[in-house]
Amino acid sequence: MERRNAWNTYEEKELTELYDIAEQYRQFISQGKTERECAGMTVEMARAAGYRSLEEVKQSGDTLRPGDKVYAVHKKKLVILYEIGTKPLEEGMNILGAHIDSPRLDLKQNPLYEDGEMTLLETHYYGGIKKYQWAAIPLALHGVVAKKDGTLVTLSIGEKADDPVLGISDLLIHLSGEQMQKKAAVVVEGENLNIIIGSRPLKTGEDEKEKKEAFRKAILELLEKDYGIEEEDFLSAELEAVPAGAARDFGIDRSMIMGYGQDDRICAFTSLKAQLEAEHPAYTAVCLLTDKEEIGSVGATGMQSRYFENVTAEVMELAGQYSELALRRCLQNSHMLSSDVSAAFDPNYASAFEKKNVAYLGRGMVFNKYTGSRGKSGSNDACAEYIGALRRVMDEADVSWQTAELGKVDQGGGGTIAYITANYGMDVIDSGVALLNMHSPWEVSSKADIYEAYKGYKAFLKAEWE
Ligand code: MN
Ligand code: MN
Questions:
Q1: Distance 300 CA to ligand 2 centre (A)
Q2: Beta strand pairing status for 427-432 and 365-368?
Q3: Strands of 314-359, DSSP E
Q4: Residue 335 phi/psi, 5° resolution?
Q5: Which of 24, 181, 264, 386 is the most exposed place for a label (fewest CB within 10 A)?
Q6: Which of the ligands is closest to the CA of residue 267?
Q7: Which residues contact 155 (CB under 8 A, 6 or more apart)?
Q8: How confident is the model at residue 376 (pLDDT cuts 50, 70, 90)?
Q9: Helix, strand, or coil here: 213?
């Protein structure tokens, strides 16, 4: 059984649409480099498409009727969009889920120090990374500093063409005899992921006391002047170092995109776009963009929090359909595509994959019946009947799609948010888009797969179930 390559299916009209959507996506991931930035952009796009916030609807005293569009944001990091369907909510919703957090380096709470006539920032990595990939590349710093008086300073340094960039040093090859003998996991160690941010001291006299920490002081003076931040403000900051610069077309045929944070903004963007274009769905259409997936979906903004359930209760109340039992039924009767990235077959590392059950770039949207590691441990194993129904939905909409596992049996493993929403008893399957270089600073995707995922999500939101 071999699945078709999506590129072979397009006429000129589709290609124009494909490249247009890929370009919108390229810009989205170039601007949205943190979960907060992506949540903010999502809200803007939703409002432009006629969505109102849950708070606005509540305060207005309006009720929600079929075709009404409402969103909720939690802690500026998690966004859920609902378009009310014509069917009662009790019959379930069609839910698109994806995550907007990505692997990165977070600043520690007490980050700033000087050493060797330079000023540096201590970091603690977030999510699974190969640490050596983060040395000797340009980094940008994004995030917020929450000051004691309640004001929030938003930072983005390193993205504009004339911005300075930051970075972590690597040892010159000439002196790396010892380093090159080490295992890859410790070639660059987590504690050494320190970001260099300056090397010019505050000009002082010869007084020893005055000269002390002159490099650190110079940076502090600059932070005070340019951003109104003092050192203690780092205590209540969320600053994330990410690869600097925009995503780019990849390949001389421009068939791919190389960019940071495609896990999982590639599924988030395509799900969001499908949601914004859902027109009067039968089942209530939901797009759920969550945070903290890369560290286990924990915390108030992760999928394991009760937020989704709580907001769904609010939506049902506003639609005049709430009861505790109706909420339980709504969640259990729902259908979901829990979207996250898959590993695409990589000819440079062919031995990690089983060729018949791996995703290929260009073969379209990916469905993973199960993920997990070892004996499917930790996996959501989607029901055959649900996959059968999805095959019908995708084929009727002429979506190119493929099935895959994450690598060979016992090669490793992974999982996403499917097993969490499965706790409600709903039908949910892991799906998404395949990447090369997953979790590296510069991940690669196929423009055809972006387009097919968007088409697949649109078809899913229109789907009607037995
Ligand atoms: Mn992911
Ligand atoms: Mn990931």
A1: 19
A2: antiparallel
A3: 335-339, 342-343
A4: -125, 140
A5: 181
A6: 1
A7: 141, 142, 143, 144, 145, 227, 239
A8: confident
A9: coil
Residue 399 has which token pair?
Answer: 């979506």
Q: pLDDT tens digits, residue range 265-295? A: 999 999 999 999 998 999 999 999 999 999 9
Separation between Cα atoms, residue 111 and residue 122, nearest integer Å: 4
CA 252 vs CA 6, 8, 233, 440: distances in Å:
19, 18, 46, 21
- CA 354 – CA 435 distance, rounded (Å): 16
Interval 338-351 mean pLDDT? 96
Q: Give 372 Cα–ligand 1 centroid separation in angstroms.
A: 13
pLDDT of residue 165: 98
Q: What is the pTM of this model?
A: 0.97
Neighbours of ion ligand 2 (CB under 5 A): 263
Q: Provide the residue type at 208 as one letter.
A: E
Rounded-to-integer distance, Cα 197 and Cα 312, Å: 44
pLDDT band at 49 (very low <50, low <70, confident <90, very high): very high
Q: Quickly state the pLDDT bin for 413 (edges 50, 70, 90).
A: confident
Q: How many CB atoms lie within 10 A of CB 211?
A: 13
pLDDT greater than 90 at residue 66: yes
DSSP type of residue 194: P
- What does the alpha-carbon distance between residue 386 and residue 374 come to, in Å, rounded to a whole number? 24
Contact 78, 332 (CB under 8 A): no
Is residue 415 predicted with pLDDT exceeding 80? no
Which residues contact residue 361 at a Cβ distance below 8 angstroms, ignoring those fewer than 6 apart? 256, 344, 345, 434, 436, 444, 445, 446, 449
Q: What's the rounded mean pLDDT across residues 39-60?
A: 98
Beta bridge partners of 403: 367
For position 379, what pLDDT does the model report?
84
pLDDT band at 169 (very low <50, low <70, confident <90, very high): very high
Distance (Å) from CA 264 to ligand 1 centroid:
5
CA of 26 to the centre of ligand 2 (A): 19
